[in-house]
Every structure is written in structure tokens, then in C-alpha cells.
Amino acid sequence: MAQVSSIADEQVSTPLSSSKSILLRISKFNPQLDESSKFLEFTVPYEKWTTVLEAILDVKKHFDHSVAVRYSCRQATCGSCGMMINGKPKLACFTKISELDSDVVTVEPMNNFPVIRDLTVGFEKLFEKHQKIKPYLIRDDADMKSDEREFLQSPQEVEQYIQFANCIKCGLCNSACPTMATDSSFVGPQALAQAYRYVADSRDKGKDTRLNIIDESHGIWRCHFAGSCSQVCPKGVDPAMGIQFLRGYLLGFRS
Fold first, then answer.
1. pLDDT at position 140, please?
2. Which domains does the chain have, with CATH numbers?
3. In which band, very low, low, confident or very high, does the pLDDT at 17 lie, cut at 50, 70 and 90?
4. What number of other Cβ atoms are within 10 A of residue 133's Cβ?
5. What predicted TM-score, i.e. pTM, was given to this entire model?
């Protein structure tokens, strides 16, 4: 259970000027040194465009250089800055403080991932499960004609999978998944959604291979269809819908 720090000098204000401010509570935990996590609290000014990531980096720059946070693109493209923000998995660079409608913003590492330090978690299992479903086009070389260089698709064919191709592997869906919390071997909504992305691609010939991979005890049948994965996806991938479509293939409702 995280403990709120009561050290007075940890509540500080940044030198930036602003008419509004929030109390930013940052979870601090190093599993190699600490027995439990605690919160450090900072009073941070913000404008209507200030993101949670900008507030964290402001604290890191001026007051606590040791705050561990992963980020890169700052425009919701790389998927690096996923974390729990006021109890919900979100991208810190895509979440504006003004939109949270709260005077207190609490940031913690994502659920269902091992904590490396503070707000940074390990993605090894996410990538391992992503690779398990063979996230690439599978074709027989015999299908390639000598004068053929690419496989063209109609707009209707692209529409079948393009939504699921928007996945940025941020891990938010896996963090929100209640099954992931109880079964660490569950393949997870991220990998299942990507399995459907390739199954639905008219250029791919690996449908049976992928369906065999996910048709097992820790595979697609462990999903209870809570739908929380789709609710938190920042790119509108809708993993829950992809999982239902995959079940349609396995049950013979789709071909």
C-alpha cells in the first residue's frame, strides 16, 4: 500500500508563473531498495494546454532529478509514457491537466507490469506476447509471380484491418485488463488485437497458424469481455471488438 509522504519540504512550487496550480502526487518506488512505494507531493502551476507529462518533467527538472519516467515523442505516437493517472491508464503526453477536472493529480506506474522504478515499467512480456502471435504477413513464396512486386488492396480490404494497425504498443489495454491482473500468462488484449489485424488482412495467409496459437487455456478464451481495454486505447483500436471477431473465426461464424 502506497504511503503519502508527510515531509513538509516535499510540497514545493515551481518557479513558473500561472494563475492555476494542482497538487501533483508522484509514486516513488525502487524495487531493488524499497519495501513499499510512497508519494512525493509537489504544487505545480499549469495552463489549459499543460499535459501531465510536462508537469512531471517540470518537477524532474527543478526539484527531483531522480523521478524515473519513460517518454519520447510527446505526441501520442510512440506509446512510451503510459501510466496510471488518477487511477486510470493514460498516456501522460496526451492527457491535459485541465481535462482531468481535479485539483489533485496522482501518477503511478501501470498495473499488470513489473515496476522498474517510479513510473517506469518493464515491457518485456508485452513484446514477448506480441511476437508470439507472429505480427507480420505470412505468405507462401509460391504466391509471388515473377513480375509481381506488391499486393494491391482495395479500400474495402484495407478498411477490414486498418483500425487495428493503429496500435502503438503503449500497454494501456493490458494495464486495464482485469484478466491480466489474475493470469500473468494470459496473452492479453494487445496481442489478440494484433492477431486479428493480420487475420483480417487480405494479403496474409497465416490465419490458421495464429488461431492455433491463441486457441489455448491462456489464450483468447481467458478473455471475459470486460471491454476495459477498448475504453482506454488512445488510438481507437478497440481490442475487445477484435477479440470477438477472432472468436467468430474459431466458432465457425466467420471464414
1. 82
2. 3-121 (3.10.20.30), 124-250 (1.10.1060.10)
3. low
4. 25
5. 0.89
